[in-house]
Design goal:
Strands 1, 2, 3, 4, 5 and 6 form a six-stranded mixed β-sheet that branches. It is built from eight helices and six strands. About 40% of the residues lie in helices and about 15% in strands. The relative contact order is 0.14. The longest helix is centred in the C-terminal third of the chain and has 14 residues. The chain is an alpha/beta fold.
Length: about 210
């Protein structure tokens, strides 16, 4: 190796991302590790800092900053215990008006060290939580109560599509009867394919990260 090349490589170099690194750490710590690179990038942009999202991801990896992810996940699938509905939605989550496409699921959460279950309905139009029920047990009553609350809020549901996974609650004749009674078309994800209900999966991911603040 040439003498000049050796000394060029060992000399101290100024880190052009030094301030950006500080800003990333500040945002990451402020949000208690629940922000991944996408949300850190969005926050930087909102603060007027012009940087590429790929650079943010690279710097976070270099600094060992990874968003916290919940370890436990409740699975409601128990095989075919009732009638499986077709995947009417086919990942077409877009809609031009409210109350055209709803999505639902059941998830386990820990609040104050206590395990419980939440069953919400979201409107795909704007992500609004139409209704929700929290219960100590992931039983059918929880899901039925959620539907009935949604129907009281929105009594006119003809032509609406309600999408879910193939959880046993949604295969149950009681649940399916309530949908038919209100003129609703039922849609289900394909078995084991969480991307078919990614709207709800994203909601649960953000909700569980935010719960870490409390």
């Amino acid at each position: 190796m040439a003498r000049t090349t050796y000394y060029y490589n060992i000399r101290p170099r100024k880190d052009k991302y030094a301030q950006i690194r500080k800003d990333i750490v500040r945002i990451f710590n402020k949000n208690k590790g629940r922000y991944g690179y996408r949300r850190v990038y969005q926050q930087l942009r909102s603060e007027g800092i012009d940087i590429n999202h790929k650079t943010v991801a690279k710097l976070m990896v270099e600094m060992g900053l990874y968003a916290w992810k919940p370890k436990l996940r409740y699975h409601s699938y128990k095989g075919e215990v009732g009638k499986i509905a077709p995947n009417v939605l086919q990942r077409n989550f877009a809609t031009d008006a409210p109350n055209r496409k709803w999505t639902t699921d059941v998830s386990q959460v820990d609040i104050g060290g206590k395990k419980c279950y939440i069953s919400p309905i979201l409107d795909m139009w704007n992500g609004e939580v139409i209704s929700y029920v929290i219960s100590d047990r992931p039983d059918l009553k929880m899901v039925v109560d959620m539907l009935q609350k949604a129907f009281r809020k929105h009594p006119h549901t003809n032509g609406l599509i309600v999408h879910s996974d193939q959880g046993w609650h949604y295969q149950h004749m009681r649940y399916q009867y309530l949908l038919r009674e209100h003129g609703i078309t039922q849609s289900m994800s394909r078995k084991g394919n969480c991307l078919d209900n990614s709207v709800m999966e994203n909601f649960f991911g953000l909700m569980k990260n935010d719960l870490r603040l409390h």
